[in-house]
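Minutes, project check-in
Item: structure for the 70-residue chain
Input as provided by the requester:
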Amino acid sequence: VTLKIGEEEEFKAKLVTTLNINVDGEDDIEYISAESPFGKALYKKHVGDTFDVNLPDNRSMKGITILSIN
């Protein structure tokens, strides 16, 4: 997926599980565990959806938008 946080940071990410992790040498990709708070928030979302993530250390990421799904 390609994600954008707020109006600033755009990055590519790959949702993985412990059963299908495959680090295929793509240096510009962030790997996100499906079991993590971020992975759970991303699950079943669609292009154009915007969501927030509550992190375990009382921080949050707000305004994450899905730009594309590959």
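Outcome recorded: Residues 1 and 70 are 6 Å apart (CA to CA).
No further action items on this chain.
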